[in-house]
Write a structure and sequence with these properties.
- This protein has a domain of 101 residues.
- By secondary structure, it is an alpha/beta fold.
- The N and C termini lie close together (12 Å).
- It is globular.
- Helix 4 packs across helix 5.
- One of its GO terms (biological process) is coenzyme A biosynthetic process.
Length: 169
Amino acid sequence: MRCLKLPEERRELFAFPYPITIWRDPPRSVELALAVAGDFGVKKIYTVGDVVTANFLAAGVVPNAAAIDLKTRRREYVEITTRFPHVLKVRNSPGYITEEAWRAVQTAVNNDGTLLLVEGEEDMLSLAFIALASDDSAVVYGHYKGALVIIPVGAYREIKSLLKFLKEC
């Protein structure tokens, strides 16, 4: 896949919480996300973000793969005790999905137990996971206003069309 960048004029479009948003604190948010996943027949869960990944792990759920950058939006360090057998370091600038990041997400989708440790920012990788994951998967990430967003890929594959709003690097 090619490098893509989020243009500044499209930022608001990507700040919208797609499509199932859970406005509850953990661990209830994780419980509800797992219930949604069950309702949609989800077999694989990919988490994007330090806090979301930490919340799933705290609830005893190890995602099939995760992407973290060791920061929250408040820029504080978040320590995550991982149970991922594979750790892959990747560079990805804020607002981008680099070619390196595309390859890393593909590796994570193909190899359960992969943690992507992102130098830069992992936020846009949720879209890469949606584009590359199988229909029996869900992508879960944190919304900047505090909600948990879950996207059952098979039911909401059209979200992949957001890629057309990105520009080539």
